[in-house]
Design brief:
Number of strands of chain A: 2
Shape of chain B: rod-shaped
Structural class of chain B: mainly alpha
Number of strands of chain B: 0
Largest interface: A-B, 48 and 33 residues
Oligomer: heterodimer
Largest sheet of chain B: none
Helix content of chain B: over 70%
Shape of chain A: globular
Strand order of the largest sheet of chain A: 1-2
Number of helices of chain B: 1
Order of helices and strands of chain A: HHHEEHHHHHHHHHHHHHHHHHH
Distance between the termini of chain B: 63 Å
Strand content of chain A: under 5%
Radius of gyration of chain B: 19 Å
Number of domains of chain A: 1
Order of helices and strands of chain B: H
Number of domains of chain B: 1
Structural class of chain A: mainly alpha
């Protein structure tokens, strides 16, 4: 009889809280379609690891540690950085850099929209976090799951679980966060600024050389970023070379799906109640929102600053599209432009900035890892 | 605010300046790279 109730008797309040949090993540994934590929596995994983004496994580039986599968996957895939890097091959294979190559001026907005990362690092340091933890929190503003996981793991952060939850949750909330932040710092007249677009054809040679050269440039400036940038650009090279159609399709589909399947549930290994149900988790999640807001504001204000000197004005919302949440951010910006002026079409500019943001966020991650010693 | 937090904050400001500056420098180099590639390898 004792055997039957030992599990129930061992339940703690914090574990029940984690079950509720797991349930909320699953609800958001299914009912609200919030990044279901990550939030559903994370939600279910949160329940798995918080069942008392769960066999899914490492337990000590008769003085001997027995490794659980989720801890094994965490050591193999997250601690080694393998999962985020392999995912980046798939993401690179999905990216079409054409809109950016046609309109390279958008690179500047990709840079500006990383402001939220560094603003949040400062805010977190001010709140008493160690610099490496502040950097791990700030990188939520990269608006890129693999980058956030990679950087947080690089700094051996204990906050990897709330950082991942925050990063993926806010990425799916871009259609809510960005319009509110943009309206704070722009007028309807500014949002209605039109930007004519002239598509420029890009040669195959340019498309092939671009990922190779970007990897070398980023690697020479921030060597720690070579893995991040390199795997992203490797995926893109597979796509653009034209002779690896099968590998490109595999990278975009099977590889991404398999890694995504494992990534979410593996991250849950760090969602144990004692580590997750703390005031620090709430602060991290709040700071993640700050990062996204100031990414948006940083991009917009930079565009407004440039407008002081430009004859042909830029729609400042294009600056907000420099966040790495692709392609959602560019669609949000186009929707807002249409609301301000039904004949306003700035989508291709926004897509260019959005793609630039993907490159910039990875560069930002690499620079942060290079700049902060621990 | 204790002195450790203040030191971390000061260091974070330095990271912000170097980081944002570094990103802009890299993106500027990539901008020049793209312009060069387009000029050297125009679409036929």
């Amino acid at each position: 009889m004792e055997l039957l109730i030992q599990g129930v008797a061992a339940i703690t309040i914090k574990q029940v809280v984690m079950w509720v949090i797991g349930g909320i993540l699953i609800y958001l994934a299914i009912a609200k379609d919030f990044e279901p590929a990550l939030l559903l596995p994370m939600g279910f994983g949160a329940i798995l690891v918080n069942i008392p004496m769960s066999g899914a994580i490492t337990q000590t039986l008769n003085g001997t540690p027995v490794e659980g599968i989720l801890d094994f996957l965490f050591q193999s895939g997250i601690s080694t950085e393998a999962f985020p890097l392999l995912l980046f091959i798939g993401i690179g294979a999905m990216i079409d850099f054409g809109p950016l190559l046609s309109n390279p001026f958008m690179l500047l907005f990709g840079a500006a929209a990383q402001f939220g990362i560094f603003f949040t690092v400062c805010a977190a340091a001010l709140l008493g976090f160690e610099l490496k933890d502040a950097a791990s929190i700030g990188i939520i503003g990269a608006a890129d799951g693999p980058t956030s996981i990679f950087v947080a793991n690089y700094f051996h952060s204990n906050l990897i679980a709330p950082i991942t939850v925050a990063a993926y949750s806010y990425m799916s909330l871009v259609p809510v966060i960005q319009p509110a932040a943009i309206k704070l710092v722009t007028t309807k007249k500014e949002r209605a600024i039109r930007m004519p677009y002239k598509a420029e054809s890009i040669s195959k040679m340019t498309r092939v050389l671009f990922p190779i050269m970007v990897t070398m440039i980023a690697g020479l400036i921030a060597p720690t970023s070579v893995a991040l940038v390199g795997f992203l650009m490797f995926g893109n090279l597979i796509r653009e070379c034209g002779v690896l159609e099968r590998l490109s399709k595999t990278a975009q589909n099977e590889l991404v799906n398999i890694i995504t399947l494992l990534l979410g549930i593996t991250i849950a290994a760090s969602m144990k109640a004692e580590q997750f149900v703390t005031p620090t988790t709430a602060v991290v999640i709040a700071l993640g929102l700050v990062a996204f807001i100031f990414d948006t504001i940083g991009g917009v204000l930079f565009a407004k600053f440039l407008n002081l000197f430009l004859k042909k004005k830029i729609n400042p919302m294009v600056g907000a599209a420099g966040i790495s949440a692709f392609p959602m951010s560019s669609r949000v910006i186009q929707k807002m432009a249409t609301q301000a002026d039904p004949q306003n079409f700035i989508l291709m500019h926004a897509v260019g900035a959005n793609v630039a943001g993907q490159v910039a966020s990875v560069i930002a991650g690499g620079l942060i890892m290079n700049l902060i010693k621990f | 605010m204790d002195s450790t937090a203040l030191m971390a904050f000061k260091e974070s400001l330095s990271v912000m300046v170097s980081g944002m500056g570094g990103i802009f420098v890299v993106m500027l180099i990539i901008f020049l790279l793209i312009k060069t590639l387009i000029k050297v390898f125009p679409e036929k």
